[in-house]
Amino acid sequence: MKHVNEEINILDENWQADYDTHQEMELFQKLANYKKNIDIFIEQLKYFMDVKFQIQRMEEKFQKEDFQHIFFKLISLTQLRDNVIEQLNPESKDLQTIKEEFKDLNQFEIKFYSALYGKIADCINLEKENPLQLMEIVKIVRNGDKLLVNQGKAPKFVPEAEKEIARFIEQRYLNQMASVSGPVAAIDNQKFIVQDLIKINSKVASRFPHDFDIFNLYFNNYKKMILGKLVPMMDQCETSLSRAGRQDVQFNEIRDRIQGYMAPFMVHLKDLIQKYIETSLERDKQDFFNFKILQKMIKEKQPLESNFPEDIFKQINDQIGLVVSQLKNDNFIGYIEMINLTFIGQMEDEIEQLKKVIKFNFEEAKKDVNLQLDLTLKISLYINNFQRCIKYSLETKKYVLESVKQPQQIEKVEESFRNLSQFFRNQLGVLYEQLKTVGFIEIQSEIIPQLFKQKWVDSDLIKDLGEKLVEFFDIISLSISLESQLWNIQKISFQFLADLYFEAFIMSYKNCFPNICTEFYPKYCDYYLVGLTEDQNLKGKANKQQKQQKQQQDQEQSIILMNKELMSMLIARDQERVNNDYLETYEQNLGKTASLVRKQFKVFLQIIDKKKIEIENLIVEAIQTYKLVALPLLEIGLTKIRDDCDTEYKNQMMKRMKDLLPKYLDLQQ
Asked: Quick check: helix, strand or coil at residue 452?
């Protein structure tokens, strides 16, 4: 025990001796902790120094209404602000300075949330103008609350939105009632509440999640306005009437109107309003249900190649007949617009799938004639059905206009059906191109490549080409029921045929010249093989080379001339074949197309045969006939085929043509 006491005394003496050191160590620890906290605070301040720049970025996003990007950036900045302020002593002199530094952030925060909640409150108009933005904003506030809950904080964004909705409804109610004079007018004016609730129930509610009950928010706040504003007015009116002993015309009128028109309103105001709203909503639900039925019919209609146009438009007309007596004015117009937009939306999805199928099958059709025939028939059916859709939609428009009287509403109906018809016309244009591509597979792959080649010289491929075209018409006539539609396809096909013909000529010259004789007259190839003897002296060799070069040039000119004459002869033969056998047969349907094809052949021949002095006038005619195709066509005709134009003259003509072409195209536009 004595030993232990001695040890304690020694430790106590040592402690007393080292007391100052211990004090310094405690101070050092405090300083270390203080430095650590200061470092953390400085890091936060470094981020804070970037706040003003971040606000500028958010202002730019705010102008573009990019609310989602702003929202999460704003949360991070406001949490930084709150953390910095919490760490300061409430009595610190720096507190006010720090708050002042966050002034811009505070102002932007107020502006942003005012805009955000204001858009949610005015959800009826926002759903009409930009439903996607409404859904995005609702998602933002709900996700914001989820973030707060995950951080152990109470949700605040949805509650704030609900408060703003209440303020918005109160202000809307007061604005609606501001110009109302007297209780009768006040009662009559309550219909705007029902209209708002119908819109909320039928359109807006679907944009909100189930736990954000926008309908009940509107309903309860409007009910609060009625009980708080309208009921006291009615009570005051009733008191005034009971005290009025004189025969006052105004009071008698008020009494009669109230007793005859809204007697139950005075006794059972709350039940009456609720029942009235429920009845209106039930009727609107029925109308909405009718639209849902029709929407389902459109989405589940028969395939594009079936007889769907007649069936679907009959169903549409039947549904319109059911609701025309229930929906009035703008509601009826809105119903028609929804039908057309639903129709377009459904058809767009099917057409995109159709394009993918055609693209896939096209590659297979190149190898399989039967698949080519099947694909041609299907595209023809699509064309026929889309044309029938235009026809039936015009009949439906006529039916709808019988129930519409006001000029503004008539224009809305006209515009809605114009958009529907234009949609089908646009799709017809796409299908025409696909029909040409599929129907001309054999023509493009087997016949056109042989034009202006050796095989073409030996056989009448233009006849084969025409027969294929007639066969193509026979196939599509099995699917196309409207003669005007068949005629239109014939026009497009003949123009396409002419374009292919002339393009084949151009490409042939581009690819074959200057060795064109090899392509048309293989026997003339020997003219290029001029042998040289090596036992002549140099002078003799030089003279012989000059003679050979001149001889070769003469031979080349002769070959070009012969080929030009051959071209003229064969093109003239094809022109006669096309004009007599094909264009004459279909002329009554082709109209301007037949005339244009004839003119193209004529100009084509003139490029080769026309006298030099007339070439300049021919340029204008060629541009008018061929438009964009004129440039390569004339360039080849002038620079490759003709031998009577020197280089300078050719360059002058080409420059004139290039100057004229854009001017002519501008005039056409």
From this structure: coil
What does each C-alpha distance from 514 to 451, 509, 547, 554, 570 come to in angstroms?
18, 8, 21, 14, 20
Amino acid making up residue 397: K
Looking up tokens 């377009």, which residue turns up?
Answer: 344
d(CA 512, CA 518): 8
Radius of gyration of the chain (CA): 43
What phi and psi, each to the nearest 5 degrees, are found at residue 208?
A: -110, 150
**Between the CA atoms of 571, 461, 451 and 527, what dihedral angle is there, to the nearest 10 degrees?**
-80
- Dump the DSSP string for 365-396: HTT-HHHHHHHHHHHHHHHHHHHHHHHHHHHH
212 burial via Cβ count (<10 Å: 0-12, 13-18, 19+): middle
Q: 324 vs 317, 392, 400, CA distance in Å?
A: 10, 19, 9
Q: What is the pLDDT of residues 254-302, one digit of tens each?
A: 445 444 433 333 343 344 444 444 444 444 444 444 445 445 555 544 4
Q: Report the candidate in 510, 387, 493 with the shortest Cα–Cα distance to residue 443.
A: 493
What mean pLDDT is predicted for residues 329-341? 73
pLDDT tens digits for range 146-180: 878 877 888 888 888 888 889 998 888 888 877 77
Sign of torsion, CA 280 286 290 295?
positive
Cα–Cα distance measured from residue 205 to residue 201, given in angstroms and rounded to the nearest whole number? 5
CA–CA separation, 484 and 490 (whole Å): 10
Question: Do 395 and 319 contact (CB within 8 A), yes or no?
Answer: no
> Distance (Å, rounded) from C-alpha 251 to C-alpha 230?
18
Could you give the CA distance from residue 333 to residue 341 in angstroms, rounded to a whole number?
12
From the number of C-beta atoms within 10 Å of its C-beta (0-12, 13-18, 19+), residue 8 rates as exposed
DSSP state of 629: G
Residue 656: other Cβ atoms inside 10 A: 14
Distance of alpha carbon 6 from alpha carbon 12, whole angstroms: 10
The DSSP code for 303 is P
44-60 residues labelled b (16+ CB within 10 A) or e (exposed): eeeebeebeebbeebee
Phi and psi, residue 182, nearest 5°:
95, 155
DSSP 68-113: HHHHHHHHHHHHHHHHHHHHS-TT-THHHHHHHHTHHHHHHHHHHH
CA triplet 525, 526, 529: central angle to 5 degrees? 110
Distance from CA of residue 394 to its chain's centroid? 25
CA dist 648 and 96 (Å) reads 86
Global pTM reads: 0.39
Report the C-alpha gap between 380 and 631 in whole angstroms. Answer: 34
- Token digits of residue 242: 């009971």
